[in-house]
Amino acid sequence: MTDAVPILLAMIAVASAGGFLYVTRRSDPQPVADLGKVKSATWLIGFAVLAAALVAVVSEGNVALSAFAALIAVLSVLQWRLYQKRKYDAAFSRQFLPALEVIVRGLQSGMPLLSALQVVQKEIGGPVSVEFKRLLDDLSLGIPMSQAAERFAARMPAREVVFFAHVIGVQHRTGGRLSEALGNLADTLRAQQHFAQRVRTLSQEARSSAVIIGVIPLFVAFGLFLLSPSYITVLFTTGTGQIVVLLSCLWMGAGAYIMKRMVQIDA
C-alpha cells in the first residue's frame, strides 16, 4: 500500500461522514430504531472507511489490520442499531400496558375508541405515542379499524400488540363490549409481566456470571499491556499474532453468544 492510500481513505471517510449528516438532516424525524436504508448504509460505509483509514495511518498501511478494523466497525454499527431497536421495543412494551388501561378506562366512561387512542397518543409519550400516532394516521386515511390494528401489529410484532389487534378485529366482526375484552387482555398482560419479572430476578445470578466470565479476557489483556507492553504487542505487530487475535475474537464472540443463549429464559 502506497503512502497516498491512507490519505485517500481519510478523505473518503470525511465524505461519508458528511453524507451521513446530509441525509440525517434532510430526512424526516423518526425513531433511531427505525432508520431508513439510506441512513443505515451511510452509517456502515462511514464507520467502516473511517476505521480503516485510522488503522491504515497508525499501522503505516497494514492492509490486514485495516480490513479487520473495517469489519469491526461494521459489526459495531449493526450491534448498536440492534441495541437501539431492542431498547425501543422494551420501552414500548413497558408503556403498552398503561396505555391499554387508559383505553379501557376511557371506553368504560363512554368515550369512543378513536378518542381513547388520541388520549393515549397525546398523554403517554415515548414509543407508544409514536406507534399510536401511526395507527391514528392509518385511521385518518380511511383504513378500517381492524385493518389498521393489523398494520399496527405488523409494525410492532410484540405479543401484546398481536393480542390487541386480534381483540379489535374480533370486536369489529362480531360486536360486543370492547371495554370488557380489552380489560381481560390488560389483566392477562399484567400477569405475564409479573411472571417475566420473577423469572428475570431468579436468573440474575447466572446472567451476572456470564458477563463476568466474558470480560475477564479483556481485563487480562489490558493488564498485560500495562505491565509488559512488549509481551503483548507481538500480537499486533506480527502476522501470526494478528491471526491469533482474529481467531480469539471469533471464539470469544461465539462463547459470548452461547453463554447468552444459556442464561436466556423466555417467560
Description:
The protein has 267 residues and is mainly alpha-helical. 85% of the residues lie in helices and 0% in strands. The chain has 12 helices and no strands. The longest helix is centred in the first third of the chain and has 46 residues. It is elongated, with a radius of gyration of 25 Å. About 7% of the residues have low confidence.
Task: Give structural attributes.
267 residues; 85% helix; mainly alpha; elongated
In short:
Keywords: Cell membrane, Membrane, Transmembrane, Transmembrane helix. The protein has 267 residues and is mostly helical.
| First and last CA, distance | 53 Å
* Mean pLDDT across all amino acids: 75
Low-confidence stretches: 19-36
**Whole-number radius of gyration?**
25 Å
The percent of residues in helical segments reads: over 70%
Series of H and E elements: HHHHHHHHHHHH
Largest sheet: none
Shape: elongated
Count the E strands. 0
What is the number of helices? 12
How much of the sequence lies in strands comes to under 5%
SSE-based structural type: mainly alpha
Secondary-structure map:
Layout: H1 4-26, H2 37-58, H3 63-108, H4 113-123, H5 126-140, H6 145-155, H7 159-174, H8 178-202, H9 204-227, H10 229-232, H11 234-237, H12 239-263
Helix pairs in contact: 1-2, 2-3, 3-4, 3-8, 4-5, 5-6, 6-7, 7-8, 9-12
Organism: Marivita cryptomonadis
Transmembrane segments: 6-24, 36-57, 63-83, 208-227, 239-259
Protein name: Type II secretion system F family protein
